[in-house]
Amino acid sequence: MPLTFELCPGRMIGGSNPCFIIAEIGQNHQGDVEIAKKMIKMAKDCGADCAKFQKSELECKFNKKALERPYNSKHSWGKTYGEHKRHLEFSHEQYRELQKYATEVGIFFTASGMDEMAVEFLHELNVPFFKVASLDANNFPYLENTAKKGRPMVVSSGMQSMETMRRVYQTVKQHNENFTILQCTSAYPLEAEDVNLRVITEYQKEFPDIPIGYSGHEIGISISVAAVAMGAKVVERHVTLDKTWKGNDHSASLEPAELAELVRSIRLVERAMGTGIKQMLPCEKPCHDKLGKSVVAKVKIPKGTVLTLDMLTVKAAEPMGVRAEVIFQLVGKSVTQDIDEDESVVPEMVEGYSKSFRSS
């Protein structure tokens, strides 16, 4: 299985590819297509890679009693839960309109298929990848049917155990090599103590042949940026135009300025990750030339003297002498000329000292 794969046309994830940033609009659009379009444009302007929604076929997702139960929350858009959800649910034609708009704006467009009928519609819509919400991570018939469709998959793992996620991995893997698993805790907003970023590392050990990501519901951006530093190759965050709007998700969502700062910070961290090879870099040479320490004579040393450690010390010196880290290699060697006290000991002054050790 690949550690990298094409999640969207022309956009690889995993390996050294940039973190894929999903702006989860979800149902924060208030049931208004024009607001949804503004949010798509906002996601693009802030630098996100993808604008994502949540698609449900309500009679397939909920049973009749669930839809009929009273819903008296301050966030309710109707007297029953069904009325509330119908207000927030876009039609198939509206989804096509939003997809067209996202294409015009220049941002990838997809949605979580919240039930199998919704997945069928999204497959017909030709979304670049399927997002599996945490609530379906243990829905194995759903996972199997979705994986068989052959589109890349992004699977959130809120409310699940490692044992369940091993089953998720094996179930999807049988039918589809191109998927990623996101560490997620399903609480809104999410307290820092419950984020459990170390699961990212555990997932990397358990599933070493797929990219691992992070879906966050915490306040602010710091934790999501830390997830990238830990190796998250996909980051998903809920977004909103106004945190005070009606809806359970708004308080844990990022407003435009926060989303833009998240993208900027992630890209900055990616630049800072480096190669893992420790060596002196060209940018360090001015500091090294000015302040780097080298070997200096602690006392006057006559020509022909065999060096002992008590004759030598380390200082920032002009000119720069033998590098400080090889001082012990000078012990037992003879000097080829008189060396004054406090004078730099350069390689030419030491008999048999290889020029390969010359400071640079």
UniProtKB/TrEMBL annotation:
One GO term describing the cellular component: extracellular region
Keywords: Antifreeze protein, Secreted, Transferase
Alphabetized GO MF terms: N-acylneuraminate-9-phosphate synthase activity
Alphabetical list of Pfam families matching this protein: NeuB, SAF
Segments forming domain AFP-like: 294-353
SUPFAM superfamilies for this protein: AFP III-like domain, Aldolase
Name the UniProt record assigns to this protein: N-acetylneuraminate-9-phosphate synthase
Origin species: Sphaeramia orbicularis (orbiculate cardinalfish)
